[in-house]
Model the fold of this input.
Amino acid sequence: MLATTTFDIPGYRAVRHIGMVRGVIVRSRNVFGTIGASIQSLFGGNISLYTTLAERARQDAYDLMIAHAKEMGGNAVLGVRYDANDLAPGITEVLAYGTAVVVERA
Done:
């Protein structure tokens, strides 16, 4: 599966546009992570607990988007984007989306 933030892939051409695909994940912080992150914030710099949580949520959303594209018959996703929203304190929705296509070598 090819995925790119651009709307074309050098060396390939889209032979069929399938449509929008997405992957949505909703994550919450646990109390221990929140306490650990609060301690890290006292010292400044990267708060690795939140970085790890954010990266895991993005990867899960991406994986769901790729699975959606495969289910629809695509072998590539163009124009991949991410979006995130806080649904409630400590609860975040992460969305990965793009356009599923079938590509072949040019």
